[in-house]
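Troubleshooting log. The previous run stalled partway through. Resubmitting the same three chains, unchanged.
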Amino acid sequence: MSDHLTLAQVDSDGAIAETLDRISPDSRAGFLRKGAILGGGIIGGGAVLSALFADAAEAATENDIAIANFALTLEYLEAEFYTEAVAMGAIRNARVRRFAQVVAAHERTHVAALKGMLGARAVAKPSFNFQGTTESEAKFKATAQVLEDTGVMAYAGQAPRVDATAVLKAALAIHTVEARHASWIRHINGAPPAPRAFDQPKTMQQILAAVAGTRFISSGPAMTATGSSPSFTG
Amino acid sequence: MTKGRRQGGFIAALALLLVFVAFAYGRDPSVEDGAVDLPPIPGGAVAQSPLLTRQSGTGAETPPHPLSDPDGTSRYMAVEQQVAARAKPSSGSRVVARLGTRTPEGTTNVILALARVERGGRLWIQARLPVLPNNTLGWIPRDALGGYNQVTTRLVVDLSAFRATLYRRGTVIWNARVGVGQRQWATPAGEFYIRNRLTKYSSPTYGPLAFGTSARSPVLTDWPAGGFVGIHGTNQPSLIPGRISHGCIRLENADILRLDRLMSPGTPLSIVR
Amino acid sequence: MSHHLTLEVVDADGAIQEALDDIETGTSRQGFLKKALTAGGTVVLGGVAIGGLPALVTAAPGPAQDTKILNFALLLEYLEAEFYTRASASGALSGEAREFSRVVGAHERAHVAFLKGALGSKAGAKPTFDFKGTTEDQAKFLATARVLEDTGVAAYNGQGPNLTKPTLAAAASIVSVEARHAAWVRDILQQSPAPAAFDAAKTQKQIESAVGATGFITA
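Second attempt completed without errors. Output:
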């Protein structure tokens, strides 16, 4: 008993869940835990999260909106990449699969939060072609590492440019989670989880150029034709 | 001849027989609906094609992974380069059809992706093809195709009941009465998909909106632009329901406008007799 | 790994209190808080506030406030650096834990050097530490490292909005590394490297309180 830690436990639903088990199992806490953990979000965080992004929505300047849409585009990409990778079923290793599932849920949560914050100003989700990187375990692992490291650099580059405090708080809360993702997949890949003492930021242009280089964002198929009458058999 | 060789010879002959059967089966346009192509189910892609079950599993090969489930999520992909679709996922296999990148209407040519395999380090997609004979499947190298686009809807047209029903994840969300092909120009039965969507044209016989399907008239083979079966509105709604068309599926205009709000192209289409 | 967790209540806006009330039904809010603020009390953390208490921000960002905050960060980096230095020297670590301490220790020492350089003559002095045996036992080392790194993330995220932009840029380049450390040690411990979609922030008071409660800083 004497060597238990007394430092504050930060934002860890794993630890919280463990602790919740120690209070009355019939308490509403047990009910809360099931819902929140499965969603990969913060326990009891619904109200807090809404508050954070609602504040951000109110306070955002035009510049902030542009930055948030830039972040949203990256989050759309990551969310779709991980969700598709899980669906494609090419990941056989359980540890890699768990990573993909957890991170997919996180990125979807990021998308929802940023879309909620931007409202009608949110950019539409682009079409993607992941060029087979969601369909091979090896390609997935390598691509995920690049995407997460890129996300860290993107958020680091934008944080000092944000105007509204509330928007900055939201950005910082996402930034470090992307760094956790990066460290996690690097560890799985046998790469150094934290290769440097200081992470480097990149500008929006640099990040967009890197993303363009992947050719992941595509224009999507044109499915509607206008103006000419159908030539179907009738 | 050694026992092993005899067995090998037997297996080869059986394979050849199955290839012949599949070939003959696939070629016959009078085959009843549903007999060749069942809606994909998880693992069902293997059952669908006898050619696949005959492939020797060397351990490096994985079974086909299903990509579309009409009661869940289906996926369609753009044809981004002119490409040959083949009977088997191998560049030496017989060409089943050659695909271009555009439809006659100018939209992107898309295929419904049924399954994926990796063979020799290359990804292949088993696709439902917009070619004759109807219900043709073929294997396409994945790198000739675009990204995965998802739909969760499914359209079923019942020719005897003169009714079309739209499902989302297995739940009915729309239905309407339809006109179908007259007996000599019967609407083909089988598994298809919505290929594109046409609007803002001035042709009252087609109503305000038309969907192109991957189904083709097996009899009107000289029809301009390939004789594709469409789903469209009409300026003769009193004829619905009935066998009234050259093969197209006709809806009353209000119904097709409602359908348009609920269904996007790429949606799998089942036509049952 | 310790199973007995003492969680500090994150005192923030009403939403958190709401979540806490939901969890601790039947406990009065006052009694709950009082118990929480006493070191050694076992409480449950409900939701986690993202962002500090507005009332604690004493001024708009500026050089004087930057200095205060960087010294606060320096204190934490001194602590982490010394923790890893002693752990690496103790001979108690092997395998990946040893590698972790070596790499992360180098990072934290680099952070100390950077902050001291940035603060110049205003840099605070390095305290005296007693790590209470956590640097001499691998299991305790890993558990403590996890908490230290997670706390570092919360601390930097809490102070980020209070910094001038250039200093924020520097802090951003450090906090993501702390997050990488946190995820790494969590994976070593077979816990989720990224337990939630958003990382919480903590206020200076909360961090100081938590650090104080460890007893690691003796002078």
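Takeaways: The CA atoms of residues 23 and 87 of chain B lie 9 Å apart. Confidence is low (pLDDT under 50) at residues 22-59 of chain B.
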